[in-house]
Fold:
Amino acid sequence: MRKFILFLFASATALILTFAAACGNETDYSSFISEKRTSVYLYEDDTLSVKLHYSSREEPYISDGFKGEMTELCEVFVHFSASPEKVEVLFDDGRGGEMSYMSVTDSFYLSFAGTFSGDKINVKLSWGNTTKTIEASSVMYDGVLTCEQALKCATEYDGETFTSLTDGNNFLGEIYVRLLSDAGKCYYYVGVCDREGNINAYLVDGESGNVIAERRS
Structure:
């Protein structure tokens, strides 16, 4: 009887250790994020619209399935109802400069290293004979998921894709998670790129975490 009890105890201990080891070996997919956009700021009036992005992103930025060295990146997008020839942008901390025109989106663009923070950001724009200071507001609000939580929702939705690229604790690909905003509501784009450049993308509701659309390319 005593031997039987010891056998049961040893078996239970082995099961517990096996379960603990399995949990400890669970892949941390967030460590394979090569682009993480955590902040978006918006401003709009009758003549122009301004969008600011803050991201942590690999450099160089290549969709090859490998995560590179990460850098902090600020991006500024400005669209005018009637585009001027030249636009300059300046922030309170002195960052800024002349923006580049992008004909595809009919907007002006500037990027630089660093961060954006706070609920609101002052932006000074100069074009032609006009100088205007605007206040861009963060799109975040109570109840919005983090990038890591949005990624977890995508892994739970399509575990097969993530498992197929998982080798032990390693992930054979790279992951993009971008905060989006539309009509006052937040969403996340979650993209999974394998080492052949194929991308599975998911649009995640920023509050419920439900995947509301997906695309494979």
